[in-house]
UniProtKB/TrEMBL annotation:
Organism domain of life: Bacteria
Residue ranges of the TM segments: 21-39, 59-77, 98-118, 130-151, 158-178, 217-237, 249-269, 281-300, 312-333, 367-386
Molecular functions (GO terms): acyltransferase activity
Keyword entries, A-Z: Acyltransferase, Membrane, Transferase, Transmembrane, Transmembrane helix
Keyword Membrane: yes
Phylogenetic lineage: Bacteria, Pseudomonadati, Bacteroidota, Sphingobacteriia, Sphingobacteriales
Annotated protein name in UniProt: Predicted acyltransferase
């Protein structure tokens, strides 16, 4: 994922090493789960839930959006306090959000354009079938909207907005009959969010693995904004200078555990579901993020144990680079077709995996070792950039 501090207007005057560590850990985990050696051989915790439910992998994206919210609060508070800077701040946020969207769009269309150049298909056909939404696109959209809300609304109004978002989304998904189906439901292809995706995005521009719905779809972006607002509210509290550290930690734990409990209770009626980004999922994942930050804050910023943080801080400061390259590299290397001994052709990256990993490990362990190698390989690049103070920002 991207570095939330790369999405902000200015460097925060008050910086938490624990937040940098948490962000880097989240990004490294994203690279790990996004790059198995084989999608057919993955340990269960490194897979997404089939539909309802939540695995550790399902927590990574909401953790990141939540961290974006915390970072917004730390970075933009001085801008918020000065009305004369509001317009400039919002314009900058919009520009950066658009760049994020375009980066995601580039990753989505890159392979299609190369295919069009090497086959009888056309570039126009590539644009006619490209996925319009995705992880980077959602981050960009959520960042813009959440920044505007933070700058323009009071903290109390932000809290009320979060509650309204969760309640409205719940009502839409559970009470509004789905056209063509006749009743509200939470099934993959017949829920309201899927119907809206097909209507607005069309099946040609949704997630290629489904074609009928998108896990980063139109309607589910609404509660994703709620996840970011949750982080903003936590960031506002953590910036307070009239509260001592033990109180901040206790408040974070209490808020997190309360949100987790509420999410689990709501799950009984509105199931925790990442693909739909349900309201219960917002509370559950956001609550766990608060608990995680509380632990990191207490250990790193309060107790002063900082030596172990470097690897993940290295991953965090250039997160935009590692996320983009991690997505681009397989696309590029697998365009290079190599002829195997049996005469068949395969991508260079696939050949490397089949030659250097699968002969020496069981299928599932080969897949895991490949993913770990991927993370460590990018760490070498990022550590070099870190030591040279090379930070690529949007």
């Amino acid at each position: 994922m991207l570095n939330p501090n790369q999405l902000i207007m200015t460097e925060p005057k008050q910086r938490l090493l624990s937040l940098d560590f948490f962000r880097g850990l989240t990004v490294a985990a994203m690279i790990l789960v996004n790059n198995p050696g084989s999608w057919g051989h993955i340990y269960a915790p490194l897979e997404h839930a089939e539909w309802n439910g939540c695995t550790p992998t399902d927590l990574i994206f909401p953790f990141f959006l939540w961290i974006v919210g915390v970072s917004i609060a730390f970075a933009m508070s001085s801008n918020k306090a000065d009305p004369s800077t509001h317009q400039k701040t919002i314009i900058k946020a919009a520009k950066r959000g658009i760049i994020l969207y375009l980066l995601g769009f580039f990753l989505a269309i890159f392979g299609k354009i190369i295919s069009a150049l090497t086959t009888e298909s056309t570039i126009l056909e590539a644009f006619q079938t490209v996925r319009l939404l995705g992880v980077l696109q959602r981050i960009g959209i959520v960042f813009i909207i959440s920044s505007v809300i933070f700058i323009k609304f009071s903290n109390k109004t932000i809290f009320k907005t979060l509650i309204v978002i969760l309640a409205v989304y719940w009502a839409l998904m559970t009470f509004v009959p789905v056209p063509g189906v006749g009743y509200p439901n939470m099934e993959k292809e017949t829920n309201l969010a899927a119907w809206i995706d097909r209507g607005i995005l069309t099946e040609a521009h949704t997630w290629a693995s489904s074609k009928t719905w998108d896990p980063e779809g139109v309607l589910s972006t609404l509660p994703a904004i709620g996840t970011c607002l949750f982080g903003i509210l936590v960031g506002v509290w953590m910036r307070r200078k009239d509260v001592d550290n033990p109180t901040k930690v206790a408040w974070l734990f209490t808020t997190g555990i309360t949100a987790v409990i509420l999410g689990l209770l709501w799950d009984l009626q509105f199931p925790i579901n990442k693909s739909l980004w349900t309201s219960s999922y917002v509370l559950y994942a956001g609550g766990l993020a608060a608990v995680a930050l509380a632990l990191c804050y207490w250990i790193i910023d309060v107790q002063g144990y900082k030596k172990f943080t470097t690897p993940f801080v290295v991953y965090g400061v250039n997160a935009i680079t590692v996320f983009f390259l991690a997505g681009l590299m397989p696309r590029v290397l697998n365009l290079i077709q190599v002829t195997k001994a049996d005469g068949t052709k395969t991508g260079l990256l696939v050949l490397f995996y089949e030659t250097c990993y699968t002969p020496f490990f069981s299928p599932i362990n080969a897949s895991l070792v490949w993913a770990i190698t991927y993370v460590l390989g990018f760490y070498v690049l990022l550590y070099f950039m870190y030591k040279k103070n090379i930070i690529i920002k949007v």
